[in-house]
Each structure stands twice: as C-alpha cells, then as structure tokens.
Design goal:
Length: 300
C-alpha cells in the first residue's frame, strides 16, 4: 500500500510462536484482571480473542502496522482460529481489525531484513489459516473495518460472509510489486465476481471501495462507519444463536462445489509465487516501494 511499510507478501514456520506441544502462548481470561467473561477471553501478542455469548471475535491487533502480517501475527492468528474451531461453546466467529485497517498485507520489514522462502511461508503458515477458516464447521464473518489488501484480502474472502464499513477498501496489490495473488485469492475472487472482474483486480492492482465491492458481489453488506461495529455484532449474534449444524452443512456444500480443489490451487499459487519472488520485477518492486517511487519494471 502506498505510504505504508506493508506488502501483500508471505510467512515462516510456527515453531517460534507456539509453546511446547504446539499449544498457543496466549493469556487465559482468568489472569486478565477486570475483564468480564463475555469480553476478552485470551490475549495473544498480536490477536485478541473475545467471547460474546456463543459468538467469538478474533481481533487482529497490530494497529500500529495496519495489522500487517509478520511471523508472530500469523502464528497467533492460526492458534486463535484453531482454538475457536475446537471450542464447542463457540458457534459463530467474526474476524476484524483493531485500529483503522482490517489487514494491509504483509510487513515490508520481513522482506527487507532477510531472504524469504516464499513457498515455505505460504504452504506452512498461510495456507493452514485460509483452509482453517474455510473448513471450520461454523459460520465465519469478515468484519472489514478498513483496508483489506494482499493477504489481508485473501483472509477476508476465506470467510463465509464479508461485511464492511463504508470507508473500507479492497485491493489485490500483488502486481504492484511484481507478484501474483496468493492465499487463495486466485480462487476466492473469481468465484465471487467472475473472470472479468477478477482479472481487473489482479492485473491493475487498484483499490476497490466498499460500495463498489458490494455492487460487484465481492462482499455481502456495507454499513456507515458509525453503525458498522453494532451491525457486525448483531450479525454475529444472529449466527451464533442459529442452526449451527445447518450452517456447517451449507459450508460443506459450497466447499464441495466451489472449492473442492482448494488445496491444489493453493499449491499452484505457491509455486507461481516462488517463480515471481525470484524475478527481476519483484526485486525492482521491493526497491521502488522502499524508495517511495514508481517501479520501473523490465519484464525480467
């Protein structure tokens, strides 16, 4: 995203952010002084898990970085997704962002401080997050409160329903640095809006505002910013008190028809992204982004 230090990039293994035996390292609610049982339940370093009756809210919590993805963030998010998926008391989930963004992509500092193993990051870290949401046997809402770009957009579209604040926008920004859509975007975007609009989003890399995204059928609902939090909470309450097994069955039907080959497409994306990450255009895209200038792509 122009003007920020984030990119629609990729992640690393989870060993550094999960405790012994792969258990999450967050803090349980009974150690959180002054927090009621229906509010903050577990606080990870970069994700907050709230309980609202039978509903749960996963709040992406790196607002100072526009909720950009780094290793800790991706590890925390996967642990939180697994926690709510395995909790029989949770019947619906909303994913939203703290601050003014939903998620602006991956953190540029990850790309500039070390050489990235793009394929490994995608397959070992990002893909379990995406498939975990898609296959969770309960409804998941993306509550898009601001920018959803790159892998942040992939995250939103992996959810069942996508609702947005009026000021939010959506962007497949990968092409702007010489990459291709990943995290399932090459599957989720055309399944929602068709080839023509998917090609436009992926190849032009321009922002799509919330109202236009609704008109295109990319998302389900838009509310004024001042009403967004209340309306999203109302939708979560409705789903959390609804026919949970019916919702799960509906997800299985849609996944069978639309996303039966999801694993193969994610693998295919990762392979192409590995090629792109080795390209001259990606190197130029990174340099241009860091130097805050337009890229001069050569096609190499």
């Amino acid at each position: 995203m122009p003007g920020t230090d984030v990119l629609p990039l990729i992640g690393l293994p989870l060993a550094a952010v999960l405790g012994p035996g792969g258990q999450p390292t967050g803090t349980l609610r009974d150690t959180m002084a002054g927090v009621s049982d229906d509010e903050l339940y577990r606080k990870y370093e970069t994700v907050n898990l709230y309980h609202r009756g039978p509903g749960a809210k996963l709040e992406l919590n790196r607002p100072e970085r526009l909720n950009a993805w780094n290793d800790q963030f991706a590890g925390d998010l996967l642990a939180a997704i697994r926690e709510v998926a395995d909790d029989p008391g949770v019947r619906a989930v909303v994913v939203t962002g703290a601050g003014r963004a939903f998620s602006s992509g991956a953190d540029l500092r990850d790309a500039t401080r070390r050489e990235l193993d793009v394929y490994r990051r995608l397959t070992e870290q990002y893909h379990p997050i995406i498939t975990g949401l898609r296959r969770m046997p309960k409804p998941v809402i993306a509550g898009v409160n601001g920018a959803a770009a790159g892998i942040g957009l992939s995250l939103a579209l992996a959810c069942d329903l996508v609702v947005a604040a009026e000021s939010a926008f959506f962007q497949l920004a990968f092409v702007n640095i010489g990459l291709v859509p990943d995290g399932g975007s090459s599957l989720f975007v055309p399944s929602r809006v068709g080839f023509t609009r998917a090609a436009e989003l992926a190849m032009l890399g321009e922002r799509l505002d919330a109202r236009k995204a609704l008109d295109w059928g990319l998302i389900n609902q838009v509310w004024p910013d001042g009403e967004f939090a209340e309306e999203a909470a109302r939708l979560l309450d409705r789903l959390a008190s609804g026919a949970t097994r019916s919702y799960a069955g509906t997800k299985r039907q849609l996944n069978k028809w639309l996303y039966e080959h999801m694993d193969a497409q994610l693998e295919f994306e990762a392979g192409i992204q590995k090629e792109m990450a080795a390209s001259g255009d990606f190197a130029e895209g990174l340099a241009a982004f860091a130097e805050k200038r337009p890229p001069r792509f050569s096609g190499s």
